[in-house]
Amino acid sequence: MKYEVIIFDADETLFDFEKSEREAFKNTMLEFNINYDEDYHLKLYKDINTAIWKELEEGLITQKELKVERFKRLSDKLNAGFDENEFAKAYMKNLSQASFLYDDSEHLLETLHKDYRITVVTNGLIDVQTTRIKKSIIAKYFEDVVISEEVEVLKPDPKIFEIALKNINYTDKSKVLLVGDSLTSDIQGGVNFNIDTCWYNPNKIVNSTELKPTYEINNLMELKTILKR
């Protein structure tokens, strides 16, 4: 086999984070007695959240600050006046309880774990990802789960992948494949760490960057074909 270890991203690769986010945000808004309009409120929040996670990747904000700052910005935009700290606590509790897999995730991992060592590296928050990922029905297939907030480094910093391999006592980078949906964190991180990468691109987004993943798939099950090469 060309590869022995597969490092998976979690959200939007194995887990349907968009669905989890949608459910958690709706429930939190309702808890705070806001007349919720998904088309308006969710879009506004996602715009704010996307921007602030980009700031995190660029080192402009810490994960601790991110937890609350995104909801401060939301409250300011809505002129809602809710306590951003309390809103953040409620949202993260709701999000931690919202774990949804993509249709092919469980079957794929059930097949792969017989021949490959599987680990997860996620740019996420401890309180959220511990429940959503480490206690999920597919957790039994993971040798380890590395959460960025827990190790205080996040993708695309290559150090997080060093930690991932160290945790499973593995050193041969030539036999490691990284699978993820984000060009800027997953694929860039894999390039930075000098390992092969597989870009999971279900929406068939045009890659207009200079990043060149080793492989590209539009369906998770296509990974099995790649691994047979």
Describe the overall structure.
This protein is of the alpha/beta class. It has 2 domains: 5-16 and 101-228, Rossmann fold (3-Layer(aba) Sandwich), CATH 3.40.50; 17-96, DNA polymerase, domain 1 (Orthogonal Bundle). The protein is 49% helix and 12% strand. It contains 10 helices and 6 strands; from the N terminus they run E-H-H-H-H-H-E-H-E-H-H-E-H-E-E-H. The protein has helices spanning 17-31, 38-57, 63-78, 84-96, 105-112, 126-134, 148-151, 159-167, 183-193, 222-228, and strands at 5-8, 117-122, 144-147, 176-180, 196-200, 215-217. A 6-stranded parallel β-sheet has the order 3-2-1-4-5-6, sandwiched between helices. Strand 4, helix 9 and strand 5 form a beta-alpha-beta unit. Helix 1 crosses helix 4 (84-96), helix 2 (38-57) packs antiparallel against helix 3 and helix 4 runs parallel beside helix 6. The longest helix has 20 residues, at 38-57. The radius of gyration is 18 Å and the shape is globular. It starts with a strand and ends with a helix.
- CATH homologous superfamily annotation of the largest domain: HAD superfamily/HAD-like
Strand order of the largest sheet: 3-2-1-4-5-6
Question: How big a fraction of the residues is strand?
Answer: 5-15%
CATH architecture grouping of the largest domain = 3-Layer(aba) Sandwich
Q: Structural class from helices and strands?
A: alpha/beta
Radius of gyration: 18 Å
Main sheet attributes: strand count, strand direction, barrel closure: 6 strands, parallel
Tell me the helix content: 40-55%
Q: What is the CATH first-level class name of the largest domain?
A: Alpha Beta
Residue ranges: pLDDT <50 for 5 or more in a row?
Answer: none
Count of beta strands: 6
First-last Cα distance: 8 Å
CATH topology of the largest domain: Rossmann fold
Shape: globular
